[in-house]
Amino acid sequence: MCGLVVAILLGGLAAVTPHGVTAVPAAAVTPHAFAAPAAATTAPAAAASDPAAASTARADPDSSRPIYRFWSEGYGNAHFYTIDHAAAQEVHSADGWWTYEGTDFRVWPTTSNGCPSGTAPVYRFWSPKFTSHFYTMNSSEAEDLRRGDANWDAEGVRFCALSKQQGDTAAVHRFWSSKFGKHFYTSNASEAQQLRANDHNWTYEGVAMHAPTSGAASPPITGAPAPRVGCQSPEMPAAIAAHDARKIMRLFGGAGAMRNAIAGGRAACVPLDDPELPWVVVNKHRAVSPIGYVPPSLTVPSSSLVGGGLRSNVVGWYERMQRDVAGSGAGSIALTSGYRSYSTQAAIHRSQVDRLGVTEGERLAARPGYSEHQIGLAADVVACGGGGCGSIYSFPDTAQERWLRENSWRYGWIVRYESGKTSTTGYNPEPWHLRYIGPDLAQVYHDGGYRSLEEFFGLPAAPNYR
Ligand SMILES: [Zn+2]
């Protein structure tokens, strides 16, 4: 079902909406207060006053039912509409991303033959890019999306409606928001009028379908709603204020769900620049913040070659990894550079730039304030043997390097600067430079086959300073 399936489908595809707008969903305020659709009036039974239509089959309003409508703040103001009671009940009870808003316009369930006599199919699409659904009765529009737009995945016919007014029907109005990257549908004439008159976030696109104004009831949605997840969780502000990484992930439903939400634009509340959180992203676009930051507590691991420890709460993970690489028979490693202060980094940067020039020098050394080493979550390691330890430059292709490439994620560390990723990370390959992001996220990173933190979180490539 959409909301549940959707949470694991996120990924960035390129291109345009059906309307040629390339906006990415922004953070969210509800664009409108939900108002119930105009009460089903005691409509005259399908009028026979239109002689032109007399020869065509008339839809039977008695078998129509109100559609269930959901809204999601976390999905950036998306709405979801379904006539499937079981699906609606499941979303309400089990998917904390969606809020049930009530029923809206009337549609017909599909039958084994397609749509009931006199009605026509409504095609449903899902866009991982826009994290929203789109519904249309226009078969050529649907065909264009299916054939020509990689942003939209066809989900088939999910209900049936009237493509033309038929007796006493209500128009279902369609809106598009380039700000939110969403469509919205309503049969409530005053809600539609409100949006058109007062809300510049939404563009009116016309009548999407026509709906009868009377007919059968939909089975009610019952029971307590699922607890709100992610940024919608009432516990989230406190977890963020406390820098409680594990709790933040748990409120999303786990590390993978949080990653999906960040990459999918549904986690605006989660800071990626807070150096107290293990997933902080520092690159050539994103300085350490504040720029003179010093970690609150540093510890030098055993068999470290130089001073400069690691953040105290991750030293244990480093030492376990160090012990296990030796235990595996691959040989031992040592930490040659962990935490580096702003001023230490300034000296390293100056010496590399003096030696190689700015362009080459900055592919090796970060500017002060732009190094992961300053946050205490980066470890440059070297291979050691009978004769002592090598340098970082002799580390590639050692047994230790191969072991870490395959196993460091088990201890919460990723190889931050891989070969082939210089245009994303801005750095030449550095197989010796490990970055701690925590075991939960590192497993998601490994399992997903990611090769840069930028790609992992759906951030732009950062090849150069701005
Ligand atoms: Zn390094």
Task: Summarize the structure in words.
By secondary structure, the protein is of the alpha+beta class. The chain folds into 3 domains: 2-34 and 60-212, no CATH class; 227-270, no CATH class; 274-456, 2-Layer Sandwich (Muramoyl-pentapeptide Carboxypeptidase, domain 2). It has helices at residues 2-6, 85-94, 139-148, 189-198, 236-241, 245-252, 255-263, 312-327, 342-356, 358-364, 399-407, 422-425, 439-447, 453-456, and strands at 65-72, 78-82, 99-107, 120-127, 132-136, 153-161, 169-177, 182-186, 203-212, 298-299, 310-311, 332-337, 378-385, 388-389, 413-417, 430-436. Strands 12, 13, 14, 15 and 16 form a 5-stranded antiparallel β-sheet that branches. A 3-stranded antiparallel β-sheet has the order 2-1-3, covered by helices on one side. A hairpin with a 2-residue loop joins strand 13 (378-385) and strand 14 (388-389). 45% of the residues are buried. Bound molecules: zinc ion. Zinc ion (ZN) is lined by residues 373, 378, 380, 433.
